[in-house]
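Per reviewer request, we include the raw input and output of the structure prediction for the construct analysed in the revised manuscript.
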Amino acid sequence: MSVGGRVRRPPIAEEPAGGNHSPEVTAMRARRIPAASIALYVLTTMLIVLASRPASAADQTPPAPEFPGVLPKPKDYRENGAPRLLVRSGGVLRIQIFGKHAPLITGRQELIEALQALGVRAQASDEGARVRVGINSEWPGGTAYLPKPGGERPQAYALAVTTAEDGKTTVAIRSSDAVGAYFGIRTLIQLLDRVPEGVTIRQAEVRDWPTFTLRMFKGQCWYYRDNLMFVRWDPQFKWNTFGVCYTDSPNWRSPSEPYRVMVDNACRTAASLGTMQIMQLGNPYMLKDKAIRATSDADVETLAAFFELSLANGSESVMLCLDDFAFLPEEDRSKFENLAGANASIVKRFAERIWSKHPGTRILLCPPPYWLTANKARGYEWAHEYLRDLCARIPPEISIVWTGNRVTTLCHEDADVRSYQDLIGADRQLFLWDNTLKMPAGWGNVFRMNAYLEACDHIATSAWPRMGEYTHGQAVINTYGPAEIYKVPLMTAVDYLWNPEGYDPKESIRRALYWFDANHEVGPMVYRWVNELHQSLFDKRLEFLKSPTDAGLKEIKEITAKYQVEFDRITAITSNKALIETLRPYLRRHTEATTILSEILEAWSTRNTDKPTTINRLARAREAFDRLATALQKGDLAGQQHGLVRQELEEATRKATDALIKNADSPRVDQGATK
């Protein structure tokens, strides 16, 4: 067979090639990959890795995790046989795109890089291409069998892997738009695998489209560096909007130069890739001394100018946030009878200025009462009246941002959605802001790898499966934790947003852990390190500080030793240096604390014979904890430090140590506390 003028050996594709693939042939509508519990998944896929053995990760080869499925889960997916060899070792895979759209060019380059990482070469070519990608309007006839995408839905794509009678396997991706074609390429990348003969591809046929067409997550405001990383990472798992949080620049009147540069870089990167949008968030009330005045036209002009940082660089949406900090300044009281009137005036004039320069810009508004039961919260008794009044005065095109029945709503109910919709008006669009990624709560709510919605105990009968209809397919997910490990919760969140009808948290976490790292063993190992070992150490520390004992310290040291060993194993098998630098401060958080805990135990042993010395030594231990916390605190805005522990997250240790000092100074102390 000849490919691109080069004679190749007869293909071996007639027989299924080996690799990390399940042998089943399935029809998507009847197919559901078994969704074991998270713990069972970790144990079954990582048993050998996590068992006690020498610290070197190279001394044993663990079994490769089984392919769990594409993430996000496609709407319609079927496999028509075992994996086929797509390109031999030493061969070259040629890729053709129809059109010069930025998302297609980006996708082709990412596919080339993915194939190179699997050990084969790939290149752009219009001749002898085995992979062809294009949109409906530019797709040539007769090039390959391919089902059409789902109607003309935005971001829809269809993918088909076919094998001709001569054994040649080809891939075709057709889409409703250029971004959909890019998402089809991202699905294709997940179908590839490395085997000794070369690279195989699963014989899949896919018709897919998102339920939520605006899938945004808000940057977690730890480092500007992470914002820029996420702009590139987001679309690889089919996010299409990144929100730059208003806490990145609370001073909307005079944004800092680093903030300006970060927004500019994010927008330019998104524009060059063509796969993402940047949405800038701003809150003109966050800093009380710089709060906006509704009586000042100059303030409204300044607010509109703040959003020019993104709109002038291609952004199509903005979010004006009045949540949590809004109040009625003294200057406004004489002209506006209430906060709703002042806010409505600001919003109308703001929208006029934005639309005069950037027609069609989507404006999202987060009001102070952004949850249904706000009227029952202290200081928000006026919430429902505010919403009716505000929404009666502002342009109908402006969507209202809302979190549900509560600020963090685990399970939305249909009646609650309808009730909030009634408050803002039947014709005004709702925009979902979700805060549930911090649930179930772990240490500090941030250093965990949770599955989205796993805390909702009745997803199927709640409003979650229909949330796309209620919100017209638009939502933002709030983030909380260090960037690298938070990729797992974010992958499960976009899994829901893409396909809420087929979402299952347990199945989703399995997929997310698998796709977390180029080495599929890493995800389950990091999950155990973060959710189990780190959480256990933190809990054991607080337990020890209530009543220091030899047994308690011994247990902490044993778990800490395992914690170090697991960190070394992760380090040995991942090439993601940013992940290691994210985890390292949390390793230090416990390995460097054992000496302090030993000092506390020794000090506690003298509490009944030398109380002043005990108190003095405990106070020094408290200072040592403070020094460690300072060393692990948040890095600078330039983002030169990775994953450092924020100061406020050490407060539980401080309080527990202070309580111990107070207990040591009390008249009566338990005589048997050290046993």
